[in-house]
Amino acid sequence: MNHARENPDAAVASTFVPQASTFSDELSRNHRPPGHDVRRAELDIIAPALQRLDLWIEGQDFRGWDPHDALNSPLLRRLSFQNRIAGIFWLQVFKRSPFNLRPLFRVPKGYNPKGMGLFLGSYTRKFRMARDPKDLARIEFLSSWLLRNVTPGYHGACWGYNFDWPNRAFSAPTGTPTIVNTAFIGRSFLDAHLALDHSVASAPVWPPPHTASEAAPSRLAVARSACDFVLQDLNTFRPAEDELCFSYTPLDQRLVHNASMMGASLLASVFCQTAEERLAEAALAAARFTARRQREDGSWPYGEATNDRWVDNFHTGFVLVALKHVAASLHTDEFQEHLLRGYYFWKERMFLRDGAPKYYVEKTYPIDIHSVAQAILTFLEFRDLDPDAVTWAFRVARWGIENLQDPNGYFHYQIHRGYRIRIPYIRWAQAWMQRALTELEYVANDTDEW
């Protein structure tokens, strides 16, 4: 089946003008895309693995545990005394244990907003490929759940986690909205709008209705509303007139590159639909903040604080994908060199030859399923610039399936030196791998991509 490649960030006339790019020339040198036989052999591995995963996820009704949900235990919530350090201790015990302590401590399975947003993106892509009414029904279920679970009290639609989240910088109570969750969910609503909505009101309408008789807001309206949360509710750091960095939540002042860039990516993508210059201007300023703090070797630290200076695999992937989205949406080649150096650094230093993703440049373990999923998505995002990228996406996917997929269909969390954690986390592992494998299957079935 031939599915023409879609561009969700179609250009809108603006002051942001496309410019010539020689980006793909260097990446393309000495590379050739895989042939039809290679593609078919890879699909014979990917498609059954994805089908097993889909069945497992649907069998769980999209509910599950999370690496960070320890404080959903009534007992541990009391034992932590609402102390951030005590909360971090229990979270790390549960996160690092090869044994699932959650049933013993009565941690319930739950719906995770970010996981639900990732599922929405996956089933939107599935529906675009196969037009299966069952996938459409799942899109409606996931969209409705997300609309019912917007965190109230902010300028726009926003989402947090379904657990208290103490971390090294601050403590976020259940539901505290984050830029990461809101950006992913907003992008999924935008993707669903592009796939399903054939007519849109001239101005997106928000908030959602208060009565069942009122019409639900358009999917574009939800994505646009999420931009209001990013622009009006988060703290912003402006070291220069043309730079800004968004905070992780309304509660903190952290300067985290991947988080701020995800917000920028949402703003830029919605700009392509609404042509609002202020969205593009904020996205461009956030991209400049991160691009200008790239290290000489092409890497980015997790954040700018002294205790946030590490470099890891999947957060680097987040930055690369988001920066590329902003550049494409705003039709600028300002970040061409940053993308080129960042992609080369990530591709050459974050993987073993067999496709296994390292966690850090200098340290392989733990091999994390999140790194597998984001690697697939990052390679696919760069396939127009690097003809070898799809081969690498298949290589990483095959490694993940052979080494981390359970016979029951779900994916294990981590492989450590000498042991592994098999706990089936719904957001961290299953939602991300479904999103990655669904996108890979789409690309593999699109003959125009080869």
Please tell me about this protein's structure:
The protein has 450 residues and is mostly helical. The chain has a domain at 24-59 and 352-450. It contains 15 helices and seven strands. The chain has helices at 23-28, 36-59, 74-79, 84-96, 113-130, 133-148, 179-196, 219-232, 257-274, 277-291, 313-330, 336-349, 369-381, 389-404, 426-445, and strands at 165-166, 171-172, 236-237, 245-246, 367-368, 414-416, 419-421. The strands form three sheets. A three-stranded antiparallel β-sheet has the order 5-6-7. The protein has a two-stranded antiparallel sheet with strand order 1-2. Strands 3-4 form a two-stranded antiparallel sheet. A hairpin with a 7-residue loop joins strand 3 and strand 4 (245-246). Helix 9 runs parallel beside helix 11 and helix 10 packs across helix 11. The protein starts with 22 loop residues before the first helix and ends in a 5-residue tail after the last helix.
